[in-house]
Design a protein that fits this description.
two-stranded antiparallel ribbon; alpha+beta; 20% helix; four-stranded antiparallel β-sheet
Length: 146
């Protein structure tokens, strides 16, 4: 039995055997179990998709309440619920979500645990933000935007 992955979120299918296809499903409960291994106080809420709420303490001692929102179309956005960022904050989208990666460099797929890339990148973003607030220098990796 061979498995073949497709990369597009819109058509993530596995080919099993000859001519049989099953959709790769997003499993919010399994995602939560994986997240709670690292962040035991994490919670999951269902409304127009799924929201994983994760309390994060950075290495500088700042406490943030991070919401990872997975839309019904499986687009992932990360917001910080308990903090208002200054207008000149780098790597922040107009809707207030964190810019964690450039879409040409990475695309999240349904079968990947959020705890493997999205959450570590969000925690790194928060750490870089803490440093930026005191130094005005962003020490994280950056992709040149055109």
């Amino acid at each position: 039995m061979k498995f073949k992955r497709r990369t597009s979120n819109q058509s993530q299918l596995r080919t099993i055997g000859v001519g049989m296809r099953t959709a790769v499903r997003f499993h919010p409960g399994l995602q939560l179990i994986e997240i709670q291994r690292l962040f035991p106080n994490s919670r999951l809420k269902r409304s127009r998709g799924w929201t994983f709420t994760i309390p994060v303490v950075t290495s500088l001692g700042s406490v943030y309440l991070m919401d990872i929102v997975v839309s019904p179309h499986f687009v992932v956005r990360v917001y910080v619920r308990n903090h208002d960022f200054p207008e000149d904050t780098p790597h922040l989208y107009p809707d207030g979500s964190l810019c964690l990666y450039h879409s040409s460099q990475y695309e999240w797929n349904l079968s990947e645990p959020l705890s493997h890339r999205i959450i570590p990148w969000a925690c790194l973003w928060l750490h870089c933000y803490d440093i930026w607030t005191t130094t005005s220098v962003w020490f994280g990796e950056e992709y040149p935007h055109q």
